[in-house]
Amino acid sequence: MSCITSQWHEIETEALIDIFSRYTNFGNRGKLDDALWSSLVRLSRLHLEYRGVDEEGAVKRASTLLDVEERAERGKFRFRFRDWLVPSLVNPKLFSMLKVAIVLDMRSKYAISLYQCLAVYADMKYQNSVEDSIQEWKRILKVPYSEKESSAWKKWTTFRRSVLEPAIDELNEKSSLTGFKVSAEYLTRGRGKSIK
To answer: What share of the chain has pLDDT > 90, as a percent?
Structure first.
């Protein structure tokens, strides 16, 4: 198993606390500082498993996500990722840069998921749209599976009215923050002209 040798990244404690104090309801600075540290500790315990292929062939890996530390005398939090994880973390096809303030300001979990998906396309020069099946959009937006015939999972009109269109509307309301607007075009396929 690879040990951590990647560089430490730092963020000023005050800057991090300022962000969290704007979007949380902690009464005093001490409580917020403790809650922030607890959150970082939980994040550092996140267990990862990886199965893939590298330059030497098939590989399986397991480890925690990162190391964190607080340097109180310097007023900084520090963190670093596992070496083997860094190439995946900087791959723009796997992750997009998300503005935390935008995500924290959103009301709908579906709008957050849509923002995560579309943010990577918003900055692309030659492809700023994405086409996929309804089933794939349900997966991307994390629509919960339901056996009910009237559910967003089973019924197209419920999915469109309750999930997709409100998420698009919320992103468009926040277009001055996100830097992009969203529109949807529904394509029909097959003899019955069903939406795909």
So the answer is: 14
